[in-house]
From TrEMBL:
Claim: NAD is one of the keywords in the record: yes
GO biological process, one term: malate metabolic process
Lactate/malate dehydrogenase C-terminal domain span: 170-335
Protein name: Malate dehydrogenase
Residues involved in NAD(+) binding: G30, A31, A32, G33, G34, I35, G36, D56, N117, I140, A141, N142, M249
EC identifiers of the protein: 1.1.1.37
Family to which the UniProt record says this protein belongs: Belongs to the LDH/MDH superfamily. MDH type 1 family.
Description of how the protein assembles with itself and partners: Homodimer.
CDD domains: MDH_glyoxysomal_mitochondrial
Pfam entry (one): Ldh_1_N
Domain Lactate/malate dehydrogenase N-terminal residues, every copy: 25-168
Active-site residues (renumbered): H200
Cellular compartments per GO CC: mitochondrial matrix
Length: 339
């Protein structure tokens, strides 16, 4: 009995050693915030992370000390702007997740966050371009439709742009869509896999319910589409001035980060997630970035899936999304390229 227990504990240690040699340094920028803390907690559970590096302008030493007592194998470090903290946090990173920035209050659109968040994301992207130019950068900070082009333009200016490594995290839209459809159709969520394309704000969020394998009445389609497009507003309203989605976003952000690590670090094939990336899908319409399902591989974006069959209602949703998306993207680009 004792011998068996001893052998199994040795085997467990051997496994964790080999697992950690195949693991990455991951930074969370904005790690002390409403999303940053639970996201970091979820990432602390990943055996594909060897070093979880937490950066924020405040409070990361405490968050890092707390998480570092969890008995998973990753090292946790906390950094603030003191003592070259951002450089320390980023050097050697393979993945950087950015939830740094202010959240909405009731009555605001995501675009209303642009004035504050654009410069936060720009400065963090500049640091990434300098200290970990090959890292995969996962942008959570809103407005995602503009902050992703901001990161891309900063990387272009620094001469280190790789479109396969910059991602807007739109996972929360499919997480919500799955939950909402499962409620309506009274099925388990694993039978409610919904493709959502476009961007991450209001009408730019385009659910393709016709591809779900479920049938819906016209009223259900309209109600579900509206709820998926404006799900973020439900949370903002319910939090009543105390911010926007944090816990569901941490869940969604961890899902995307883990999927990326499965593809990049563990070398798994066929990992598909929706994400807002540089894309040719609507290039003819002048849209440079677009969210679709994307197969992830060792170098990030492996294959951008086509939109597939859409019905007339969904064609209308896409037509409404395109001009808004183009405006959001151009706004981010010109923020960096203005004279
Ligand atoms: N992509 C999505 O689906 C999605 C979902 C929810 C929220 N968001 C966005 O995520 C962002 C963060 O939301 P939150 O609720 O965590 O906000 P929060 O205010 O709770 O946390 C933000 C954190 O960012 C930090 N921060 C500010 N400036 C920084 C800088 N220069 N460097 C490093 N850290 C900095 C703050 O100190 C704070 O700890 C918001 O912009 C929100 O709109 C996106
Ligand atoms: O709604 C917000 O402002 C936060 C986030 O983009 C969301 O979709 O919950």
């Amino acid at each position: 009995m004792f011998a068996t227990r001893q052998i199994s504990s040795i085997a467990k240690r051997a496994f964790s050693t080999s697992a950690s040699s195949n693991a990455a340094k991951v930074a969370v920028l904005g790690a002390a915030g409403g999303i940053g803390q639970p996201l970091s907690l979820l990432l602390k559970q990943s055996s594909l992370i060897s070093h979880l590096s937490l950066y924020d302008i405040v409070n990361t030493p405490g968050v890092a000390a707390d998480l570092s007592h969890i008995n998973t194998d990753s090292k946790v470090t906390g950094h603030t702007p003191d003592n070259n903290g951002l450089k320390e946090a980023l050097t050697g990173c393979e993945v950087v997740v950015i939830p740094a920035g202010v959240p909405r209050k009731p009555g605001m659109t995501r675009d209303d966050l642009f004035n504050t968040n654009a410069s936060i994301v720009r400065d963090l992207a500049q640091a990434c371009a300098e200290h970990c130019p090959k890292a995969h950068v996962l942008v959570i900070a809103n407005p995602v439709n503009s902050t992703v082009p901001i990161v891309a333009e900063v990387f272009k200016k620094a001469g280190v742009f790789d479109p396969k490594r910059i991602f807007g995290v739109t996972t929360l839209d499919v997480v919500r869509a799955s939950r909402f459809v499962a409620e309506v159709k009274k099925v388990p969520t694993d039978q409610a896999k919904i493709t959502v394309i476009g961007g991450h704000s209001g009408v730019t969020i385009v659910p393709l319910l016709s591809q779900s394998g479920h049938s819906f009445t016209e009223e259900e389609v309209k109600a579900l589409t509206h709820r998926i497009q404006f799900g973020g507003d439900e949370v903002v309203k319910a939090k009543n001035g105390a911010g926007s989605a944090t816990l569901s976003m941490a869940f969604a952000g961890a899902r995307f980060t883990n999927s990326l690590l499965e593809a990049t670090v563990a070398g798994k094939k066929g990992i598909v997630e929706p994400t807002f990336v540089k894309s040719d899908v609507f290039a003819k319409e002048g849209v440079e970035y677009f969210a679709t399902n994307v197969e992830l591989g060792p170098n990030g974006v492996e294959k951008i899936h086509p939109v597939g069959n859409v019905n007339e209602y969904e064609k209308g949703l896409i037509s409404a999304a395109i001009p808004e998306l183009k405006g959001n993207i151009a706004k981010g680009q010109s923020f960096i390229n203005k004279a």
